[in-house]
Design a protein that fits this description.
509 residues; mainly alpha; Helix Hairpins; 4-stranded antiparallel beta sheet; ANK repeat; calcium channel activity; TRPV5; metal ion binding
């Protein structure tokens, strides 16, 4: 029951009341330091009160709980060294990491905890010491891997075509070699080494990605921008295309160019994932993801309807015409592609001034130019501009969350020997088995002096008000007289306390 009440207090909107009640309940806890402590019992979602405060973005409760866990090591003048308990914060030995919970939530208030002590210092320590070097090495290794795969595709086994052409539009001069002909010369053996590296890399990608999908869940794993959801879809699809290409090569099936071309595009687009490790490029990838999966996805539905309608009209208009004079609409698939190019103003309106064109072509093309070019493209630009304005206010915050997610990902993937645990064990200071982060804080004496003056003003106002209200209750006047006396008393007490406060400030100055 006590643990349930603690979880309820974390969700209370009145933060001051929740903190006082939290301390009151813990004062009756018999197992404050043991494993049966109320603070360590998780709820049905596996969240302790401390983790629940982080997920809900309750910064007041989080700071209150951190103040209870800190240990003052020593103090010398304005310098103070504090040990912060990072047992539940550090993701090194946690199955359900506190940092991963914060970056995976959709509440913006939760991401503000990343700027608080000691979370900010812990993330900075992990990223600067281990995360950034390993991430840069991984980016370089991936680029070299993609260069190897690209060279294998460029020099794939081809042979001259021997069959006759079946159409005047057929311009194929090379065809794919059979499996027995693909690995004969010395150059083929070099390509075979690159192909083996490519296939091994695709298998490693699937081995690393699939356990995370099963652990987190597909919806959460692919749907979170901060966790790199779109890039996970890209890299898994790329690995599948590599395996499909390998099967088609082993079975001598023609058409391997289709999965191979998809793999090249997806593999090189995944390079943008590594831009999150750099502050100059990271926010731009966030902007691109927001625009692609927000504005562009909605716009594509409208664009598909317009292209289908006008492409069908263009095909019907030129269905009775000679395709040699105007071949942009000679069949329905080519009509769709040409209309798509016209929609994006990649090409001008096709016309042949040596022959007469149908009258309806001019009418339909006029309407298409007005709707597509003038209306819908400008609508897309306006939508993207609005998204840029909204995301620009939180792009730095989202980038820091991406850095945290990348740090947690690397810490889970790398062996323990390459990523030692951050912090100091409490045994060194007689604090048990818990781990602490040592932080040096500089205290501004002027700031604390002003805070003492403010507390003095508040205390004087409170005392004067209590005395005045006590006198008021003892008197037997009417209600109207009570209200008038309260107003006059509050004015006099505020004037007196302000005068005393300014006298204290003037004297100390």
């Amino acid at each position: 029951i006590g643990n349930t009440v603690l979880h309820i207090l974390v969700l209370q909107p009145n933060k001051t009341f929740a903190c006082h009640m939290y301390s009151l309940i813990l004062s009756y806890d018999r197992n404050k330091e043991g494993p049966g402590s109320l603070e360590l019992i998780p709820n049905n979602e596996g969240l302790s009160p401390f983790k629940l405060a982080g997920v809900e973005g309750n910064t007041v409760m989080f700071q209150y709980l951190m103040q209870k866990r800190k240990q003052n090591l020593w103090s010398f003048g304005p310098l103070t060294t504090v040990l912060y308990d990072i047992t539940e914060i550090d993701s090194w030995a946690e199955d359900q990491s506190f940092l991963e919970l914060i970056v995976s939530t959709k509440k913006r208030e939760a991401r503000q905890i990343l700027d608080l002590t000691p979370v900010k210092e812990l993330v900075s320590l992990k990223w600067n010491m281990y995360g950034r070097p390993y991430f840069c090495f991984l980016a370089l290794f991936y680029i070299l891997y993609m260069a190897c795969f690209t060279m294998c595709c460029v020099y794939r086994p081809l042979k001259p075509r021997t069959g006759n052409r079946t159409s005047s539009r057929d311009n194929t001069v090379y065809v794919q070699k059979m499996l027995q002909e693909s690995y004969v010369a010395y150059e083929d053996e070099l390509r075979l080494v690159g192909e083996l590296i490519t296939v091994i890399g695709a298998v490693v990608i699937l081995v690393l990605e699939i356990p995370d999908i099963l652990r987190v869940g597909a919806a959460k794993y692919f749907g979170q921008t901060i966790l790199g959801g779109p890039f996970h879809i890209i890299v898994i699809t790329y690995a599948c295309m590599i395996l499909v290409t390998m099967v088609m090569r082993l079975t001598s099936t023609t058409g391997e160019v289709v999965p191979m071309s998809f793999a090249l595009v997806l593999g090189w687009c995944n390079v943008m994932y590594f831009a999150r490790g750099f502050q100059m490029l990271g926010p731009f990838t966030i902007m691109i993801q927001k625009m692609i999966f927000g504005d562009l996805m909605r716009f594509c539905w409208l664009m598909a309807v317009v292209i289908l309608g006008f492409a069908s009209a263009f095909y019907i208009i030129f269905q009775t015409e000679n395709p040699e004079n105007l071949g942009q609409f000679y069949n329905y698939p080519m009509s769709l592609f040409t209309t798509f190019e016209l929609f994006l103003t990649i090409i001008d309106g096709p016309a042949n001034y040596d022959v007469d064109l149908p009258f309806m072509y001019s009418v339909v093309y006029f309407a298409f130019a007005i709707i597509a070019t003038l209306l819908m493209l400008n609508l897309l630009i306006a939508m993207m501009g609005d998204t840029h304005w909204r995301v620009a206010h939180e792009q730095d915050e989202l980038w820091r969350a991406q850095v945290v997610a990348t740090t947690v990902m690397l810490e889970r993937k790398l062996p323990r020997c390459l990523w030692p645990r951050s912090g100091i064990c409490g045994r060194e200071f007689g604090l048990g088995e818990r781990w602490y982060l040592r932080i040096e804080d500089r205290v501004d004496p002027n700031k604390h002096k002003m805070m003492r003056y403010t507390e003095a003003f508040k205390a004087q106002d409170r005392d004067n008000y209590d005395k005045g209200s006590g006198k008021l209750e003892s008197s037997g006047g009417t209600l109207c007289k009570k209200e008038l006396s309260v107003l006059s008393l509050s004015r006099s007490t505020s004037r007196t306390s302000s005068h005393r406060g300014w006298e204290i400030l003037r004297r100390n100055t």
